[in-house]
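Kindly review these tokens for lecture notes.

. . .
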Amino acid sequence: MFCSTPWRISLLCLFLALALPATAATLPDLWPLQPNPTTLSNQLAAAQAVPPVLQPALQFQKTFCAILAGAPASVWRDDIEKCARLTGNDPVTQGIREAARPWLARVWMEDLAAVLRNYYQRHVSFPDTLTALGKDLPESLRVDPWGQPWVYSPHTPTGFAHQLNQRYQLGTTRNPRLSSLHDAITNRRPPPGGWKITPQDIGGARALQFQSATANSLIQPGGTVDGCVLMFVGDGWALLGGPEQLFTVTY
């Protein structure tokens, strides 16, 4: 949980950034690998001539910027949920959906933590399974944002054998050790990268060859490399949807 002062300062920084003169930015600048929320907010506010196909990616980035700035989840929760629930299989939708779901999972994990705390107050231990929460567990929280079961495991600290289930681990099926919202912001890890990227042509359509120590993939938009979705191929740059964020690469 955030105390009030840090997120208020962060929101003030965002407000001041939006009030500053607009900084010219190219399209690739709008999805940097290492975003600075203050600078990026100014660039997003001034963004012009964004192709219609990338407008949803621009909206996601504005929400992502609020997350990085430390705004409380109540500010951006509805927007990230809309991103996570996007339907369709076009490359842009795929990338946004996969980038949004880990953030939504963290919000839901905080909701689950509140339910588990209430259970603990009544039983002085956490349940053996989430099913034991019964009707106290809202229907909307019974599966993670991918529609898979939560990975929940209670445990008993060493030396407390007479007090079972005093701690627990909670995560998603895709990432059983998904970091908390606070840790994800303060200790954010950039998505994978380091590829050698070569443009190719497949039947007259653009494709990119990604080569690294872990990858050698020739893909078109909609394909994946190292868990990242190739969303859009521009002139000398491409937009990818990685775990938890969108980012651009150049070639």
Q: What stands out?
A: Residues 103-186 form one domain. The radius of gyration is 21 Å.
